[in-house]
């Protein structure tokens, strides 16, 4: 893992981020999402690139995993407002880097041990185990993911004890 650098994303990363994000979706969601729901997103490279371009203005904490110039993972947090805790908006790693510690490095770089919320597919046991190891617990909410379909649950990581 020493050859993979976790660093802040820069505006020039937008295209690589969009492509990495889609590749991660293809790998992570192949068995979780109806292929007919996933296909239009996988075909919308330009849309993903533009969404990332909009998030790289400095208001969203975004970190990338850079393996010699190729992005192999990403993490972003929606900015917290007021007293609200941060929301982990995205944490994805390419399949060849699963179970290597890279996801942990990305999570730590974007959140540290701060309290946070997230949403995860209910049936994504691998991701749920990862988040549980990082002290996230289900918050009791569940809904149908509006774009890809499938049930999602909310998870929360409370503030550490004083």
Helices and strands, with pairings:
Blueprint (H helix, E strand, L loop, with lengths): L3 E5 L5 H16 L5 H8 L2 H11 L6 E6 L2 E9 L7 E8 L8 H10 L4 E6 L3 H9 L3 E8 L6 E7 L5
Parallel strand pairs: 4-5
Antiparallel strand pairs: 1-2, 2-3, 3-4, 5-7, 6-7
Question: Could you give a quick summary of the protein structure above?
Answer:
Helices cover 33% and strands 30% of the residues. The protein contains five helices and seven strands; from the N terminus they run βαααβββαβαββ.
Assembly classification: single chain
Count every beta strand, where a strand is a DSSP E run of 2 or more residues. 7
Rounded mean pLDDT score: 91
Instruction: Name the helicity range.
Output: 25-40%
Radius of gyration: 15 Å
Strand order of the largest sheet: 1-2-3-4-5-7-6
SSE string, helices as H and strands as E: EHHHEEEHEHEE
Distance between the termini: 33 Å
Spans where pLDDT lies below 50 across 5 or more residues: none
Total number of helices: 5
What share of residues are in beta strands?
A: 25-35%
Largest sheet: 7 strands, mixed
**Overall morphology:** globular
Structural class: alpha+beta
């Amino acid at each position: 893992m020493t050859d993979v650098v976790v660093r802040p994303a820069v505006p020039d990363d937008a295209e690589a981020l969009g492509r990495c994000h889609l590749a991660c979706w293809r790998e992570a969601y192949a068995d979780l999402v109806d292929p007919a729901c996933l296909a239009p997103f996988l075909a919308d490279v330009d849309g993903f690139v533009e969404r990332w371009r909009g998030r790289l203005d400095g208001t969203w904490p975004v970190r990338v995993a850079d393996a010699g110039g190729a992005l192999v993972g990403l993490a972003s947090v929606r900015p917290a407002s007021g007293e609200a805790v941060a929301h982990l908006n995205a944490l994805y790693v390419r399949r060849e880097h699963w179970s290597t510690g890279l996801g942990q490095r990305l999570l730590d770089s974007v959140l540290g041990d701060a309290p946070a919320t997230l949403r995860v597919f209910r049936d994504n046991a691998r991701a749920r185990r990862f988040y549980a190891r990082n002290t996230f617990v289900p918050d009791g909410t569940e809904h149908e993911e509006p774009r890809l379909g499938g049930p999602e649950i909310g998870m929360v990581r409370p503030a550490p004890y004083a």
